[in-house]
Amino acid sequence: MKNVLFVVVIAALCAACYAGGQKNTISVSGKASAYVPADRASISFGVVTRAETAGEAARENAAKSEALFAAIKAQGVDPKDIRTENYSVEPIMKYPKDSEPVVTGYRVSDRVTVRTKKIDKLGALIDAATGAGSNDIGGITFYADNTEDIQRQALADAVKDAKAKAEAMAAALGAKVGKVISMNESYTQPRVYAKSNMLMAGAAMDSAPATEVFGGDLEVGAQVNIVFEIIE
């Protein structure tokens, strides 16, 4: 479930000896990653409508949006997991050469974000949304709850990685690794890791294949920077 990622190590040896009151040290960094299956996702669906007047565009958009909401709910999505992200009305401009810009129509956009734990049903949700008139679908974002344990595992592996590097370098110098002088840590934000495309071809057409979505795993990374004492 984990995969240690090795990085270039920058090692620094202090030239001063113990007699001078300064210990010989070696500084190393270590990285590691662990993976946890995604257990929920969010995806945005939009309806964009164009018409000659703002009122006409708004009415047509409202009808399409209502059909979209109904289709989403029919897929078992709780209404509280549907949130409006954006609604806009914009003029469509034309810029004739050597003339003033003119309004040729209006564009109305209505976008909602849907949250769901039914990752295996995302493909069907996308097909239902496009079939209901959604013509502006945003990217899918995957999440995982309770990543603390996997984060601690990545941190422990990063420490092991750093220590192994320190021991290898110390051995090459005919020395041994002593106690830890200082250490700091950092983490990377969980991100999707997958061996294949997350979203495969699919559309709301009778002849098109059903959309397939693969949740994949979330990568949780940790990095440590450690300064060890080295003993000659």
Task: Please provide a written account of the structure.
The protein is α+β, with helices and mostly antiparallel strands and 232 residues long. It has 2 domains: 2-38 and 146-231, Protein of unknown function (DUF541), domain 1 (Translation Initiation Factor IF3), CATH 3.30.110; 40-143, Protein of unknown function (DUF541), domain 2 (Alpha-Beta Plaits, 2-Layer Sandwich), CATH 3.30.70.2970. Helices cover 24% and strands 40% of the residues. The chain has helices at residues 54-74, 122-131, 148-172; strands at 2-3, 25-37, 40-51, 82-94, 102-116, 136-137, 141-143, 176-193, 217-231. Strands 3, 4, 5, 6 and 7 form a 5-stranded antiparallel β-sheet that branches. The longest helix is centred in the C-terminal third of the chain and has 25 residues, at 148-172. The two termini are 38 Å apart.
Offer a few descriptive terms.
232 residues, alpha+beta, Translation Initiation Factor IF3, Alpha-Beta Plaits, five-stranded antiparallel β-sheet, four-stranded antiparallel β-sheet, 3 helices, disordered N terminus
